[in-house]
Specification:
The chain is of the alpha+beta class. The protein is built from 20 helices and 30 strands. It has three domains: 150 residues, 2-Layer Sandwich (Aldehyde Oxidoreductase, domain 4), CATH 3.30.365; 191 residues, Aldehyde oxidase/xanthine dehydrogenase, a/b hammerhead (Aldehyde Oxidoreductase, domain 3, Alpha-Beta Complex), CATH 3.90.1170.50; 296 residues, Aldehyde oxidase/xanthine dehydrogenase, molybdopterin binding domain (Aldehyde Oxidoreductase, domain 4).
């Protein structure tokens, strides 16, 4: 299954370059910024889920001792109603600005309304209470199906449904409806011996990153704005702040700090333009930090959804037709991940006849953000549960069923693209042959479930530069925030080209003025795309070093060869020098060498994984205990296997939390009632076994080392796998997430 080519660095497990700083506490995170004259900002948030803003009076707050500035939406410039690509996807600039500070209407509890800068955080908090806001409270709509009804409260009076390219005449909470179609659906279902059709509901879920959002801004009299922050994309922050504040990008510098988790939730800006505006008004640096409640109530979670799936198969186990209806909550503004969900819903399988309808729907909750394979988990929960039921009805092993129907190179997805080389069959076979799947599972109320998941992965743009040092090491400069070890994986790819050790590379993630444009760390693109740029930058260094060796030996460039870190001359006289030796002699051959490259690779290679889980259900309490968990996944080529295993394990754990515990709980007023980690319960070590991560390597032909992104796929399968295991344990099919003890007892008819 694996690419048998041996590498010197790629595929090894060196100690991560930032490890010492992280474990000793020297690494600087967003909240660690301190400077002379620093002011502290605090944000006033709406207590209502839906209300008109009648008036805002900031005079009492402005007069409060220690307060240096107060800002509201009126302080921001007018922006165009336009769609712009400002991060991991396109957003409406007016919506982005309105989400930063509400202008005419608040659309969720926690919506930012005003902000204060003061000499200390306590004074700023006290001043918030002096801001007088008059609201006209409106009824909220909190459920995607309720929001789609004709008589539902309207969030936006000017929102018209984009109905497959045509705008509707009347306002609606449905921002868009699109459709993907392939083959003849009616014919496909007519050929089926078994048809299963169910409805599924998933709740709003948070990414669960440990570090809250933060921003420190300094506006200089020369018009230059600098922002220090934790972000998944410094250039995305620059673009968003530039649009919200109507400043040229050349006047905005973003310095990315270390990041304490993101998972897609730290791409969109919330407080960064606020800290910038407060700095503009005061002429001082201003730091704004979110509390945990602020993060839950005021930043983007993943969406709740309603999914209806119908799948038909013949008695031989071949899928004949599949139909999907996906309605996803976008939160307060359009832009749910329903489009990505429709890309992924059936992409594990080769289905000749399929139809998918997608609906993007606004509700009175925070605007949704990405969360690891955004949209895919919701859809897979439905599809993989139904496939399990089909397998039961026709008496077929669920992994054999997946091998029979697996997507292969050349198959066409329902949304149009033709699949390149993919490793679905190999991941299923790895699960099928694993000791976990072969082991007996004995005991009452125990069950084993399987499920698969797909993510297309993305490429996008990255830039890298490399400086060769006289001691034979290199300094590598990149713009990708390191989440999960990407610094190491990027450095290792450069090291492989140059025949040096990973430890001989000093990688640095730098600000937007110090490296070429680089897209966000997201979409499972970084090891692939920034690694690709590092590979090309190292090739640039290699070319220049060959020229220097030729100059040193006074031979033609074509007579110098390079392999495994050694330069050799093949022009009669045998000469040899290693990378370090030549680096020591750069001054006598022409001076410093700088390699650079920008990459926009367009063949990221899809990633597929298959999970196996054993559970035990307590019939009296409904509590589910995970007994054993195995996740197989095609990584293309694992640059640093430890970090690939960590990504697989981390995604599986987050999927377990999504499956069993995690949800936003709202009351009828639209108030989140569990906005803390005490009440919003993520898994701990006490809830989990060791996750067995099995790396499958089917090289991606679109990358020089065969890399596929790995970060998204492992969160897709867990809820469905656990649902299928619960069914085997207690005989009930769960169709709502999370599968909490109360819901399981209800399904069992015990409450």
């Amino acid at each position: 299954m694996a690419d048998k080519k041996e590498y010197k660095v790629v595929g090894t497990r060196p100690i991560r370059h930032d490890g010492v700083d992280k474990v000793t506490g020297r690494a600087l995170y967003g909240a660690d910024i301190h400077m002379v004259g620093l002011l502290h900002g605090k944000v006033l948030r709406s207590p209502h889920a839906h209300a008109w803003i009648k008036s805002i009076d900031t005079s009492r707050a402005e007069a409060y001792p220690g307060v240096k500035a107060v800002v509201t939406a009126k302080d921001f410039p007018s922006v165009e109603d336009k769609i712009a690509d400002l991060g991991e996807g396109a957003v409406n600039v007016q919506d982005l600005q309105d989400n930063v500070l509400a202008g005419k209407k608040v659309l969720y509890k926690g919506h930012q309304v005003a902000a204060v800068a003061a000499t200390d955080p306590h004074t700023a908090e006290e001043a918030l209470e002096l801001i007088d806001v008059e609201y006209e409270v409106l009824p909220p709509v909190l459920d995607v199906c309720e929001a789609m009804k004709a008589d539902a409260p309207l969030l936006h009076e000017n929102l018209r449904t984009d109905e497959m390219g045509e705008k509707s005449e009347s306002p609606s909470n449905v921002a868009s409806h699109f459709q993907h179609k392939k083959g003849d659906l009616e014919k496909g279902f007519a050929e089926a011996d078994v048809v299963v059709d169910h409805e599924f509901v998933t709740k709003t879920v948070h990414q669960g990153y440990i570090e809250p959002h933060n921003a420190t801004a300094l506006y200089n009299p020369d018009g230059q704005l600098t922002i220090w922050c934790s972000t998944q994309g410094a250039f995305a922050v620059r673009a968003q702040v530039s649009e919200v504040l109507q400043m040229p990008v050349s006047k905005v510098k973003v310095v990315p700090m270390e990041i304490g988790g993101g998972f897609g939730g730290k791409i969109q800006v919330y407080i960064k333009p606020i800290s910038a505006m407060l700095s503009m008004k005061t002429g001082k640096p201003v730091k704004v930090l979110m509390s945990r409640a602020d993060v839950f109530e005021g930043t983007g979670p993943t969406p709740g959804s309603y999914v209806r799936v119908k799948i038909g198969a013949n008695k031989e186990g071949c899928i004949t037709a599949a139909e999907g209806y996906l309605a996803y909550e976008a939160g307060a503004y359009p832009g749910s991940p329903v489009g990505a969900a429709a890309m992924c819903i059936y992409s594990c399988y080769n289905i000749e006849n399929a139809l998918v309808d997608g609906y993007d729907v606004v509700v009175n909750k925070p605007k949704t953000s990405a969360y690891r394979a955004p949209g895919a988990t919701n859809a897979a929960f439905a599809v993989e549960t139904i496939i399990d039921e089909i397998c039961e009805k026709i008496g077929m092993d669920p992994l054999e069923f997946r091998i029979l129907n697996s997507a292969k190179e050349g198959d066409t997805r329902v949304d149009g693209p033709v699949l390149p080389r993919v490793g679905f069959i190999e991941t299923v076979e790895a699960a099928k042959d694993h000791p976990h799947y072969l082991a007996p599972l004995d005991g009452k109320y125990k069950g084993r479930g399987v499920a698969s998941g797909f993510w297309p992965n993305f490429g996008m743009k990255s830039s890298v530069s490399i400086n060769v040092n006289s001691d034979g090491t290199i300094s590598l400069v990149e713009g990708s925030t390191d989440i999960g070890g990407s610094r190491a994986s990027v450095a290792m790819q450069a090291a492989e080209v140059l025949g040096i050790s990973a430890e001989s590379v000093s990688p640095a993630v730098v600000d937007t003025n110090s490296v070429g444009y680089t897209d966000v760390t997201g979409g499972s693109r970084t090891a692939f795309a920034t690694g690709y740029a590092a590979y090309e930058a190292a090739q640039d260094v290699k070319r220049q070093m060959i020229e220097r060796a030729a100059k040193l030996w006074e031979v033609d460039r074509a007579d110098v060869q390079f392999a495994d870190g050694i330069f050799t001359s093949v022009n009669g006289k045998e000469q040899e020098i290693d990378f370090k030796g030549l680096a020591e002699r750069l001054d006598e051959t022409g001076g410093p060498i700088v390699g650079r490259a920008s990459a926009d690779p367009n063949q990221p290679g899809p990633s597929i994984g298959t999970h196996v889980v054993d559970v035990e259900v307590d019939p009296d309490t409904g509590k589910v205990q995970i007994l054993r968990y195995t996740a197989t996944q095609d990584a293309g080529k694992a640059i640093h296997p430890s970090y690939v295993e960590g990504q697989i394990q981390g995604g599986a754990v987050q999927g377990i939390g999504w499956a069993l515990n995690e949800e936003y709980i709202y009351n009828e007023k639209g108030e989140m009632t569990n906005a803390s980690f005490l009440d919003y319960r993520i898994p701990t070590c006490l809830d989990l076994p060791m996750i067995d991560a099995v790396i499958v390597e089917i090289p991606n032909p679109g990358h020089p080392y065969g890399v596929r992104g790995v970060g998204e796929t492992p969160i897709v399968a867990p809820p469905a796998a656990i649902a299928n295991a619960i069914y085997r344990a207690v005989g009930v099919r769960m169709k709502e997430l999370p599968m909490s003890p109360g819901r399981i007892l209800k399904a069992m008819g015990k409450i």
